[in-house]
Design a protein that fits this description.
This is Lipoprotein. With 189 residues, this protein is an alpha+beta fold. It has helices spanning 2-19, 23-30, 33-43; strands at residues 66-69, 72-83, 99-107, 118-126, 129-133, 138-141, 146-151, 162-171, 174-188. The termini are far apart. The model is unreliable at 1-42 (pLDDT under 50).
């Protein structure tokens, strides 16, 4: 009899772990585990309803430097620079040396980029500072083999220093991240 109770207890504990944490774990304590599993199946959206998003716990900088989208390998080719051209601002002041970026999603082996690839966000980081762009991204197609994101007005980082870049790509309803590390920040006069 005691052995049956221990098995039931272990089964219940396993179901709680499987159903997740937070509210779902609290629900599992008060409901029949079979009913909770059926409800979770009904509540889960299909892949067509909403794109899969990355969990917040992922260390974005551990992402790969190349992705496979269908049978095409993609990677980043990026340029970062400070525009130090002598320009007078609208208020008559000298504009700051703001960071500019040209970030390209490129393909290997002269294969075209698969149709339906979208760039969702770009993050550029240096030490503990980050520049994140998610809305109003200026994206251009450069033929069939690349997409380019242009960004202006970033942080005032030092020329000659390096930054890391992470691009979140949406393809076939799934978000993936590709990175490029230690991109040199040049200066344009």
């Amino acid at each position: 009899m005691m052995r049956t109770d221990a098995r039931a207890l272990l089964l219940a504990a396993g179901m709680i772990l499987v159903t997740g944490c937070g509210e779902r774990a609290q629900e599992a304590e008060s409901k029949d585990p079979a009913v909770v599993g059926e409800q979770a199946d009904r509540e889960a959206p299909s892949a067509e309803e909403a794109p899969v998003t990355l969990p917040a716990e992922i260390d974005i900088w551990q992402s790969p430097q190349e992705l496979m989208l269908s049978d095409v390998t993609v990677y980043l080719g990026s340029e970062l620079w400070l525009n130090s051209m002598p320009v007078i601002g609208d208020d008559g002041s000298q504009p700051a040396n703001k960071l500019h970026a040209s970030i390209r999603l490129l393909t290997r082996d002269m294969k075209p980029l698969p149709k339906g690839v979208e760039i969702m966000q770009v993050m550029i980081a240096q030490d503990d500072q980050q520049w994140l762009a998610q809305e109003n991204l200026e994206i251009r197609s450069e033929g069939e083999m690349s997409l380019e994101v242009s960004m202006r007005g970033g942080p005032e980082w030092l020329p000659g220093s390096k930054a890391d870049i992470a691009v979140t790509v949406l393809y076939q309803g799934q978000e993936q991240v590709v990175i490029q590390q230690e991109v040199l920040i040049s200066q344009v006069f």
